[in-house]
Amino acid sequence: MKESVKIEGVIIQPLKQMADKRGSVLHMIKNDSNLFKQFGEIYFSEIHSGLVKAWKQHKKQSQNLAVPLGAIRLVIYDKRPNSNTHGRISEYILGRPEDYRLVHIPPMLWYGYQGIGDQTSLIANCTDLSHDPEEIESLSDDTRQIPYQWKT
Amino acid sequence: MKESVKIEGVIIQPLKQMADKRGSVLHMIKNDSNLFKQFGEIYFSEIHSGLVKAWKQHKKQSQNLAVPLGAIRLVIYDKRPNSNTHGRISEYILGRPEDYRLVHIPPMLWYGYQGIGDQTSLIANCTDLSHDPEEIESLSDDTRQIPYQWKT
């Protein structure tokens, strides 16, 4: 896995893929996982090849992301003033079949992702709180407030 | 939607798809849904075009299915002796973009599905109990115990 810098509170777990000639079965998260606190919502986000969805920050909600189709470059920026990894940026490749894993993103981190590979990718997100626009901050993908340049 | 016969306890809800030029956002289930009781597990199952995964019966676990990629024919058979729809078989088409919806399958029903369309499809299942092989019964897709003939 390409992981340039570790960020405090971000947890990555391998996920099982059970091969079957009719189609694989892919784990995501169970109620006995140490990453599961409570159930907020499960939803999906498509990202077309090469395009970017960024940046988001959740004040309260934690994200649990997996990519059951295609592949993405996930980028996380730690702007938390009291974090041991304050100021760091980390890249994670998520996708099938080599990089099928769960990434837990705690609140207050900034994150975004880019579709890589040829096809549209699908991100699944299992959160611990249901959607509340009041707890979300957004910045454009080319903001100067985050020291990262998305690849073109 | 193609729905040949209604089955007691099976609930179908439309799901929102929010169009975005970078890729759609697709709802599945939230903690305030009337179909959400408690969180067991979220996992995915691929099904290749034309192939069948059938039949399964859960004694305790409820299924909440959505198909964020491709399309499937879901078939449910009601063999519950005390059901008002005992003996009935119902077909449901689930998939993108026209048939994106959530199907709730209560325990004790038999179900299976077939990939339709040209591509591999992806089924997401959000259950109310985590996986327990002890509560699952299986029959082969060509069993004579279920009066259904999968299309070839």
Give a written overview of the molecule.
The structure is a homodimer of 152-residue chains. Chain A is mostly beta strands and 152 residues long. Chain A has a single domain (11-138), classed as Jelly Rolls (Sandwich), CATH 2.60.120. Helix content of chain A is 0%, strand content 45%. The first copy, chain A, contains no helices and 12 strands. In chain A, the strands form 3 sheets. A 5-stranded antiparallel sheet of chain A has the order 1-9-6-11-4, with no helix packed on it. A 5-stranded antiparallel sheet of chain A has the order 8-7-10-5-12, with no helix packed on it. Chain A is globular. The interface between A and B is large, with 38 and 38 residues.
Q: How do the strands and helices of this protein lay out in sequence?
A:
Two copies of one chain form a homodimer.
Chain A (H helix, E strand, L loop, with lengths): L10 E4 L2 E2 L6 E6 L10 E7 L4 E7 L4 E7 L1 E7 L11 E7 L5 E5 L4 E7 L4 E7 L8 E3 L14
Antiparallel strand pairs in A: 1-9, 2-3, 4-11, 5-10, 5-12, 6-9, 6-11, 7-8, 7-10
CATH topology of chain A: Jelly Rolls
| Biggest interface, residues from each chain | A-B, 38 and 38 residues
Structural class of chain A: mainly beta
What is the H/E string of chain A? EEEEEEEEEEEE
Strand-residue proportion of chain A: over 45%
Helix content of chain A: under 10%
Low-pLDDT stretches of chain A are: none
Radius of gyration of chain A: 15 Å
What would you call the quaternary organization?
homodimer
Tell the overall outline of chain A.
Answer: globular
- In the sheet with the most strands of chain A, the strands line up as 1-9-6-11-4
Q: How far from one another are the termini of chain A?
A: 21 Å
Mind describing the biggest β-sheet of chain A?
Answer: 5 strands, antiparallel
Number of strands of chain A: 12
At the first level of CATH, the class of chain A is Mainly Beta
Tally of helical runs of chain A? 0
